[in-house]
Design goal:
The protein is α+β, with helices and mostly antiparallel strands. The protein has six helices and eight strands; from the N terminus they run E-E-H-H-H-E-E-E-H-E-H-E-E-H. Strands 1-2-3-4-5-6-8-7 form an eight-stranded mixed beta sheet. A hairpin with a 3-residue loop joins strand 1 and strand 2. This is N-acetyltransferase.
Amino acid sequence: MNARLPEPQTLTGRSVVLSPLTRSDLPELHAAIAHPEVFAGGYGGGPAGLPEDLPAFLDFAEAYYPWTSGIPFLVSTVSTPENPRVVLGTTSLADLDVVNRGAHVGWTAYDPRVWATSVNVESKLLVLGLAFSHGFDRVKLQADARNARSRAAIAKLGAVFEGVLRHDRVRADGSWRDTAVYSILSEEWPDVRAALECRLAADTRPLPIR
């Protein structure tokens, strides 16, 4: 049985909302993630890929995010009358192969102020849930092999390390990137989901961003 393509939709959690990314969101996304420390680990092609200003970021976003092969999401806080939404970053569900039931969760970046908070845990819980609820059997996650922080975060989600693709792509500075590949399978998802839910329940800290 094939997997089913999910429709673009808003995913709402305890502290974050994932809404389909639109071009009108890009100025706020630029303010959240266009920082040297975000690109230092390999995001967007590495440090040399950091757009110098908003117009350059708009061009970058048009080429980089999987607008036609999946669902790019804007990650923001849950909005209330007292606390309007704050854009935190982005993630995507893409490379959707319904025949072989494979998908890829990636293109993820957050405002450095919410690193090591519940934001990534809850965002991944929501988007992985969307993938597995639509019949996908293997969801890939990956990072620049040199990015120890991102690799540790992926492993902590419960993803299994599969190996390193050598000279997988060219970085913005012309050097070769090796890519560390991880995955979660559908039969692993119930245990992974339970562990992520436990991590969220144990983390009662307010987000340091309002």
